[in-house]
Amino acid sequence: MIIEHSKAFRSFMANKDLDRKAGLYADSLMLVMQIKPHQKGLVQIVGKAGDKNNLDAIKSWVKSQLCCESEKGEDNLETLRNKLQRCLEDAAD
Hints:
The protein has 93 residues and is an all-alpha fold. The protein has helices at residues 7-32, 43-46, 54-72, 77-92.
């Protein structure tokens, strides 16, 4: 059996691709929404345990969204920006 055909390897590569994609989207969201990456204000709002700053929190949030959105074919920056904006507005209320 070739390692590339193993379930563990395919799972590893899919997770690696998800991390890469989430990082790119997180970087773009930070730029478009003018979020400071090293501050910590969003950690409690959208972050997960272990997130240290806004960049980590946004990346965690994006990863969770990509799992759902890719199934619907809506994993694009504008969709993610709108969802994040709504999430932050809801948290502010």
